[in-house]
Amino acid sequence: MPISAEILAYNKAQSAADRKICDALARAIERNLAQAECKVWHRHPVWFIDGNPIVGYSKLKADGGAIRLMFWSGESFDEPGLQKDPPESRFKSAGARYTDAGQIVEKDLRRWLDKSVEIQWDYKNLVKRRGRLVRVK
């Protein structure tokens, strides 16, 4: 599926350096998650499989204004390159932060994207389950 116009517009609205990061991430995600639907969700680019959010990125105000790549189920990937959310968080997300496109390691990103398909927590039904996360089989 091609990158949506709204995601391209999001990327274009970033600074030149951040746009390079966003464009590189979007291309890699599209190459590796061809079956995923992409859209801007809560003002950030996000890719979904069967309505479940899988991966997205956003511009952070903190952390030196880095671009954060976030995997909704990333904590379960057991990957040293991904930073987990704080321990008190009830979510299973983890991600990486980039301030330069050269920091993106394609091999790592490809492996994380593969794991994002294999390892999913059901965020789509989080409200229906009253905040309880269940692993997607």
Describe this structure in words.
The protein has a single domain (5-136), classed as Alpha-Beta Complex (Aspartate Aminotransferase, domain 1), CATH 3.90.1150. The chain has helices at 5-12, 16-32, 106-118, and strands at residues 37-41, 44-49, 52-59, 67-71, 83-84, 94-98, 120-121, 135-136. It is globular and about 40 Å long. It has three helices and eight strands. The model has no long low-confidence stretch (mean pLDDT 92). With 137 residues, the protein is α+β, with helices and mostly antiparallel strands. A hairpin with a 7-residue loop joins strand 3 and strand 4. The strands form two sheets. Strands 1-2-3-4-6-5 form a six-stranded antiparallel sheet, with helices on one face. A two-stranded antiparallel ribbon has the order 7-8.
